[in-house]
Amino acid sequence: TWVGAVVGAIPPMMGWAAVTGNVGVGALVMGGVLFSWQMPHFLSLAYMMRNDYKAGGYVMMPGEAGSPELARATLASMRHCIYLEMLCAATPFLGMADTMFVAEATVLNGGFLYLAYQFHAHGASGNQGKTNAAARKLFLGSLLYLPLLLGFMVFHRCGSTGKIPAHPGATAGEPCTYLAASNMVSEKDSSGKSC
After folding, report:
1. Helix 99-125 crosses helix 128-155 at what angle (to 10 degrees)?
2. I need a labelling partner for 17 at 20 to 30 A (CA). Which of 6, 63, 99, 135 fits?
């Protein structure tokens, strides 16, 4: 889970580096978002599919409902939902997104944390059926969460003027690199060339 999450966190870091020309703090934030998102996403899936993993000879962190292994997995899911909020709250200070993004992300993160808490509470009660239902809701919520969060981040990047710093080391008034990249793609699209 942890190693796979690192591998899943690398593509947004590569994208950041391709657009900005560096692997700075922004790349680490993007990688951190993907890394932390994968914990509740995969741990809930691993719980739902635990018997299939077991039949295949794989040992997964989530155990049966009421077990200490499941408690450890559900607490990790909740902890990473909190990390997601911290990462999102840092984006205006890093010049990655405006404060409206933080407001929207806080609502998303609150909902994600609530689903993770339900997974934890039902798992601790030992009720297999309710734990399975809570794990399924968390997993499905994670599928909705990520595109919404990233969509909000794109929509609120660099503010509406594109003049706030887009990456660490940028100066106030420097054009947003995201907008410059977007303009380059738009120019190619309008000239009839495929990207």
Report:
1. 170
2. 99
Answer for the pair 80, 71: CB distance below 8 angstroms, yes or no: no
Contact at 8 Å (CB) between 40 and 142? yes
Dist. CA 174–CA 18, nearest whole Å: 18
* pTM to 2 decimal places: 0.77
What does the block give as tokens for 118? 């339900």
How crowded is residue 66: how many other Cβ atoms within 10 Å of its Cβ? 15
120 membership: H or E segment, kind and range: helix 99-125
Structure tokens at 45: 């899936």
Helix 25-48 / helix 99-125 crossing angle, nearest 10 deg: 30
193 DSSP 8-state letter: -
Q: What is the pLDDT of residues 162-175, one digit of tens each?
A: 444 444 444 555 55
